[in-house]
Amino acid sequence: MRGIKHSENKRQEFINVARQLFFNNGIGRTSINDIIHHAQSSKGCFYYYFSSKEQLIDIILSDELNKFYEEIKKITTNEESSLCKRFRDLIYSVLVSSTEFKFIKELYYLQDYPLRNGYTNLALNRCTDVFSDFIKECQAQQIINIRYVWEITNIVLWGIHNILRKEGAAVVVSEDFNHILGVVEDIFNIQPGSLQNA
Description:
It is a single chain. 76% of the residues lie in helices and 0% in strands. It has helices spanning 2-25, 32-38, 43-49, 53-76, 83-100, 102-106, 113-140, 149-167, 169-187. α1 packs across α2 (32-38). 23% of the residues are buried.
């Protein structure tokens, strides 16, 4: 039993060290040797737990996305807020989370484009699934009137993703948030001002 606990602790230590190095140095600038060195371990031990650096990225990305989805779920299920207020909070959460969830932001800087695009697609598609469920609820309450909910939601999230990549979240949140809300109102056919005034 002690060996199993020690084994799980070492595996988690590799994950924690990799997460910290990815945040501090960037995913592309962190090697397996860096992780092994900071975990004070060996290559054999690393490869006992993980087949590659990409497997570590998968584990950490999954963990970060789960945290983000939990945050989204709290917003979408908050019965004390109006649907418009929850929608506004969702948009804000996506903008702010790009800085809070540094690992997801780090994906932008991966030099391996197929890998970067694969992870970015995964993150945005899973996010679209969660948003789409909420938007269908808004449709049922006749706040939103659109067809192709998943597709339009995905386009909006990709747009926000590209804005954040170019401008950075701090600039967007402080200067452009109401403009973004206005565009979202237009795209989702929401009465003008409903999100901005929520």
